[in-house]
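Late entry, written up from scratch paper. The run itself happened at the end of the previous shift, but nothing got recorded in the book at the time, so transcribing now.
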Amino acid sequence: MKEMDVRLERLTTMRAVHTHALSDTPEEDAGKKIRAWAISKGLTAKNGCRLFGRNTYPTDKPEPHGYELYLTINDAIESEGDIEMGAISGGLYAVLRFTNLNRIGAAWKKLWTWLEESAYEPVGWTKGSHGWVDGFEEHINWQAEEKPVTEWVFDLWVQIKA
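Output as recorded:
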């Protein structure tokens, strides 16, 4: 599959811990919290942990926005402090892979355009504990923190009606 091609993928519900930040830099603030917790648990070097993020909107306006991060974990690990238990919902998703954080806006636009032109219907916006949410940004190579943002790899996930 080429980069920026959309694929369909079915996820099973995944157990995860999560954290949220509502600030001027919510992505960075939530990232610092979840990475510090993952390091303290020795999870950054383990394969199998997946990192999903998403914007949160406490109102029906685009700003302010927060950011919520989910780190998938196994059953032996428990949350603590600012890190809470959560889950990534199972279901059918439209997924688009791309490289370079600077291209995230274009990647989201391409995925939404594909959905509008396809026979699939997104599940739509839902109200979560931190506001309105829709879709996930999975940071594929999140353990490699020293990589420049131009080398970060992402999958964008939008749940669709099966």
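The two ends are 22 Å apart (CA to CA).
(Scratch paper discarded after transcription.)
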